[in-house]
Amino acid sequence: MKDKLLEIRIKQCGLLSNASPCPRRAVGAIIIDPTDGVVLSDGYNGTPRGSEDVLCGGSVCLREDSSVKSGTQNDIGCHHAEMNAILNSSRRGQATLGKWMIVSCSPCLMCAKAIHHAGIVKIIISSIPESHTQGVEYLKRNDVDVSIVLL
Questions:
Q1: What is the pLDDT of residues 93-145, one digit of tens each?
Q2: What is the tens place of the pLDDT at every residue in 53-93?
Q3: Helix, strand and coil percent figures for the chain, each rounded to 5
Q4: By the number of CB atoms within 10 A of the CB, which of 14, 42, 48, 111 ranks highest?
Q5: Residue 100 to residues 25, 53, 65, 115, 136: CA-CA distances in angstroms?
Q6: pLDDT at 12 (0 to 100)
Q7: How far is 93 from 90, CA to CA, in rounded Å?
Q8: Concatenated DSSP letters of 52-117
Q9: Are 20 and 45 in contact (CB under 8 A)?
């Protein structure tokens, strides 16, 4: 893939994060085909599609309100952007095997395991990795190429 197109996709991921209703941290994720750079799926952190449950958004984040450490207790709050991108891909019948993911922050361990299991072979993180590094370490140990590209 050409560097210019990858740069555009990274910027798109950053813009996508603006769709998140989360007051704690807005995150975007895009799954692309590395052969031509086409976006296959995307996601941002938020409630499940069509759900009326208030898992995140509004003026208070449930994770923040409960003092949940970033990267832990993922059953509290919204779906993460990476998980939404993978689930959106599945919903549309788009294979993730051999694809790349661009994400606007480093994945938590739960998302890292989902990325690996989905067959995604490369993840591009467009920010400096967070203090929780378990997800990145997991991906590296399991032969998922991890790149940090700051624009």
A1: 999 999 999 999 999 899 999 999 999 999 999 987 677 788 999 999 999 99
A2: 666 656 666 667 777 776 666 666 678 899 999 999 999 99
A3: 30, 15, 50
A4: 111
A5: 23, 31, 34, 9, 15
A6: 96
A7: 5
A8: -S-SS-TTS-HHHHTTPPTTS-TTSSPBPHHHHHHHHHHHTT---TT-EEEESSPPPHHHHHHHHH
A9: yes
> Average per-residue pLDDT in the chain?
87
pLDDT tens by residue, 125-138: 998 767 778 899 99
Phi, psi angles (nearest 5°) of residue 114: -65, -40
Residue among 18, 134, 40, 123 at smallest CA distance from 87: 40
Both tokens of 104, joined, read: 């606007």
What 3-state DSSP class applies to 147?
A: strand
The helix/strand/coil state of 21 is: coil
Q: How many residues does the chain have?
A: 151
The residues facing 79 across adjacent strands are: 46
* CB-based contacts of 93, cutoff 8 Å, min separation 6: none
Vertex 74 angle, CA 145 and 136, to 5°:
20
Residue with tokens 């958004």: 57
